[in-house]
């Protein structure tokens, strides 16, 4: 699982601060999460192949999370993309993208599939044989979802000596990795867990931005491998966090602690602060394993 | 008159190529012309004070000329702008900006005044005591206007010895600069042009992008000081210019020659070419005074 931070600042893009966008590589998928202005240039800087992006997840329709979307859709068209593109986001996202295509008289040749979200409950919105994606309803000034990306349980691993000693025909090995009990060469039923062990534990990533402190999300993101939680402010500006429906670094850490995640990544910083280290210090008073998102930084888990 | 090129490439923004946007300083106005994605960051790089921009002129609603507009409007709001902002552009521009403000539930505190254009004839769209702005109807895939910015005739300059010898009271000097005849201290009428001379000749700037070769614009832009004319292609790709309704460098030069402008600036280059110098070479076969727009370049006239 690899996470590339294209931008992690709030409000407005600046010369050295990009607004929210990130790419999650998980089980050969390349998911684009949020798409602030300038995302397409950030993708080029990261040398991420545009064609590998087939799914875009937009948290909410504030500009710093989606003003780069229509430009990306348009650039895909100019590069004669053919692959379908799925866009997940709040109701209204289809209208705003299609209005701009209409005004430009520039329709995509590739198929653009909008999945507009309206539910206030967590939903399963994408699933294949390896990954599933759920929404995480957040509490912000407008309708907002975070997204939970979960690897599915992979194939079980053969305990090779046990399998050989049990005299199981090689033809059944695949069934064993799928968790089935099988008959051996002497017609005896072999229980699966006597000859296999679980594969590597599935990983998961929860993206939560923008939101004020919301404990309701804890059951949804419990035991997640990595939680990205916005921390627009430090605790000294907790009143601003309440007013603007954002979180402090301390609150992000509280959510991480309650949800027993492995790693917390902070991001969506206000540009009022000179240093990011103070965000880490504040969060670490509550939760041990804290990382700082930075534009251009890549995390591997 | 000062022109700052924020971006001068066609189609899509890239790491080193910005799409169309430029700032024209003329008689203390700061006019923003077109607003491709990333324009707000380019403005910051140029250290152009956001508050000085009170008028934005959008040529047409293709993304490489206006996808940065809503982000700029939104950033002005976040920076608690108070001054009115006038936006000139094709019909539809108001709907697309206001739809995004509605979806974000983020309305500007400052006044946003849209001037939607629909005419196929050149129109006077802005005028004060020092400057006027006219549209230049262009021929592109969708409804498009160039813009002509013209300084008005400034005050006449006193020929100081002649004024003194004519025994004119100092109180009348201002009337003289305004072109009036005045009586001298002996009650004799002094003809204005015997004691004054014209002030510096008014300058003008014509922005023509995007358009295919269109001779109809020549009478509108005749004798312009500076003409920016798009040259997306070289003559070797003239068939593409016709197909996509763009111009070649040679065609831009032909327009400059016929309109007898002083200087031609080329821009809106396709990124297919390795060097810009070939654009200059091609245009100079037709017209002598050719400059190349480059991102970050400033011209003073």
Automatic annotation (TrEMBL), chains A, B:
<feature type="binding site">
    <location>
        <position position="140"/>
    </location>
    <ligand>
        <name>Zn(2+) 1</name>
    </ligand>
</feature>
<keyword id="KW-0479">Metal-binding</keyword>
<feature type="active site" description="Proton acceptor">
    <location>
        <position position="64"/>
    </location>
</feature>
<keyword id="KW-0540">Nuclease</keyword>
<feature type="binding site">
    <location>
        <position position="64"/>
    </location>
    <ligand>
        <name>Zn(2+) 2</name>
    </ligand>
</feature>
<keyword id="KW-0378">Hydrolase</keyword>
<feature type="binding site">
    <location>
        <position position="62"/>
    </location>
    <ligand>
        <name>Zn(2+) 1</name>
    </ligand>
</feature>
<dbReference type="InterPro" id="IPR013471">
    <property type="entry name" value="RNase_Z/BN"/>
</dbReference>
<feature type="binding site">
    <location>
        <position position="268"/>
    </location>
    <ligand>
        <name>Zn(2+) 2</name>
    </ligand>
</feature>
<feature type="binding site">
    <location>
        <position position="210"/>
    </location>
    <ligand>
        <name>Zn(2+) 1</name>
    </ligand>
</feature>
<feature type="binding site">
    <location>
        <position position="60"/>
    </location>
    <ligand>
        <name>Zn(2+) 1</name>
    </ligand>
</feature>
<keyword id="KW-0255">Endonuclease</keyword>
<dbReference type="Pfam" id="PF23023">
    <property type="entry name" value="Anti-Pycsar_Apyc1"/>
</dbReference>
<keyword id="KW-0819">tRNA processing</keyword>
<comment type="function">
    <text>Zinc phosphodiesterase, which displays some tRNA 3'-processing endonuclease activity. Probably involved in tRNA maturation, by removing a 3'-trailer from precursor tRNA.</text>
</comment>
<dbReference type="GO" id="GO:0042781">
    <property type="term" value="F:3'-tRNA processing endoribonuclease activity"/>
</dbReference>
<protein>
    <recommendedName>
        <fullName>Ribonuclease Z</fullName>
        <ecNumber>3.1.26.11</ecNumber>
    </recommendedName>
</protein>
<feature type="binding site">
    <location>
        <position position="65"/>
    </location>
    <ligand>
        <name>Zn(2+) 2</name>
    </ligand>
</feature>
<feature type="binding site">
    <location>
        <position position="210"/>
    </location>
    <ligand>
        <name>Zn(2+) 2</name>
    </ligand>
</feature>
<dbReference type="InterPro" id="IPR036866">
    <property type="entry name" value="RibonucZ/Hydroxyglut_hydro"/>
</dbReference>
<comment type="subunit">
    <text>Homodimer.</text>
</comment>
<comment type="similarity">
    <text>Belongs to the RNase Z family.</text>
</comment>
<keyword id="KW-0862">Zinc</keyword>
């Amino acid at each position: 699982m690899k996470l590339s931070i294209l931008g992690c600042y709030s409000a407005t893009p600046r010369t050295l601060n990009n607004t929210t966008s990130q790419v999650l590589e998980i089980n050969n998928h390349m998911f684009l999460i949020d798409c602030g202005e300038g995302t397409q240039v950030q993708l080029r800087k990261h040398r991420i192949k545009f064609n590998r992006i087939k799914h875009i997840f937009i948290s909410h329709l504030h500009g710093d999370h989606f003003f780069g979307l229509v430009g990306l859709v348009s650039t895909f068209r100019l590069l004669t993309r053919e692959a379908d593109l799925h866009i997940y986001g709040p109701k209204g996202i289809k209208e705003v993208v299609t209005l701009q295509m209409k005004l430009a008289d520039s329709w995509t040749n590739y198929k653009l599939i909008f999945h507009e979200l309206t539910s206030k409950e967590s939903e399963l919105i994408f699933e294949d044989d390896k990954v599933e994606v759920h929404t995480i309803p957040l509490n912000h000034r407008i309708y907002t979802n975070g997204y939970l990306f979960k690897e599915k349980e992979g194939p079980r691993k053969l305990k090779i000596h046990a399998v050989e000693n049990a005299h199981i025909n090689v033809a059944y090995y695949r069934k064993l990795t799928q968790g089935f009990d099988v008959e051996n060469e002497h017609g005896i039923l072999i229980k699966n867990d006597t000859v296999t062990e679980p594969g590597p534990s599935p990983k998961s990533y929860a993206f939560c931005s923008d939101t004020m402190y919301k404990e309701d999300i804890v059951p949804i993101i419990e035991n997640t491998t990595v939680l990205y939680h916005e921390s627009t402010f430090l605790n000294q500006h907790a009143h601003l966090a309440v007013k603007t429906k954002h979180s402090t670094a301390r609150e992000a850490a509280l959510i991480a602690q309650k949800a027993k995640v492995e790693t917390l990544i902070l991001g969506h910083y206000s540009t009022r602060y000179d240093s990011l280290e103070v965000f880490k210090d504040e969060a670490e008073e509550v939760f041990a394993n804290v990382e700082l998102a930075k534009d251009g930084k890549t995390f591997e888990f």
